[in-house]
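**Protein fold record**
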Amino acid sequence: MISGCASFSKGITEAFLEKQDAVDNRVCEILGPAFDGLKPNLYQAHGKTKVLMIHGVGNHSPGYATEFAEKLAKELDLSVTAKQHKNIKLTSPTDKTKKLGNLRIQRFLDKTKQKELLFYELTWSEITAKYKEILAYDNSGEYSFRRTKVNEMMKKFSNDTGPDPIIYLGESREDILTAFTQSFCWMASGNWEDLPDGSPDACWSKNLSSVESILKDHYAFVSHSLGSRIAIDGFQKIAEILGNKNKKQKISEKQKIIAMALKNKQLPLYMMSNQLPMLQLGRSLPEVNNQKQDYCEPQGKFYSQRILSKTPIIAFSDPNDLLSYAIPQKFADTYLDSRLCFEVTNININIAKVFDIFGLGEIANPLEAHVGYDTDDRVVGLIAKGIGGSDTAEIVRERCRWIETID
């Protein structure tokens, strides 16, 4: 009798959970101005569309973004791809003995071979891996067998991800930012045929394509967790290089021209599991803040000193992701460099499914909420086709609620 009751209870529980799983009521709320996504750029008469992916905490291997890249290509109707991808072993222009990670490039085209997307995947965790070896003993059998299975899994995750923000604040920060700026340099260096493959190589301003190509090509960035901080710091580092802010070396005429070209560019940044507010703790304010009107409006008194025409930030945050935060407008004005001309759209989205435990409360897997952004169809649809335009993805129209903001 007891065995029969247990089986009956188990059956009820499974049926209850399966019923909840069958109905997908996950939240998707968009607060901010309309944005285009990648698709309109593919249909421009001139220029290539190029996307750079920057991973967050934890050890990653080249190819980590393959599923995301292929889902993005499918959403954009790009059904043709190159037989092989390319890899560039990143190094420093000033010290070629440094190993700064890997840049993997995939090429996608439509059936007519007229529309092309180049997907650049930066893997920088090689830089931090050597420092994490200090904690390797903690994952050995000498200590791990004393933990429960669940706690051991959580401890391994903690040892893999926890050190990265700390390491980034130390001496490795410049190496990671160099990996980012080198990736951006290769991104702006011509077409698929112009890119090297295999051997370590450094990109210089002389590698950059013509200014006309920089003006015509369309760039976008996708980041996860710590990758968002790296991307924004990287934008500012590029500005320092091109503007030669510290005057330690003479800036070339080509660098000046490239800097002028970037002043007319928009570089959208799609942030998954945004951590900017947490990663701002203990950092000094940017040199220029709370002056967006002066730098970003044509009538502003410092308009000529802007770095970019606009930096649209589309921040995806699952409220059940314990490491993710929205970006209030006041935070953007105070803690982000006004010269980058940020425009923020916050997307409150349930990545992990929320389950009701028999009326006792709701629960969602915080790990799934943190790592599942790049495989979510709504996230892919928003990055590919944006919101507020005629090309908005059908899943976004059906499943997301948009509240437009205006000045």
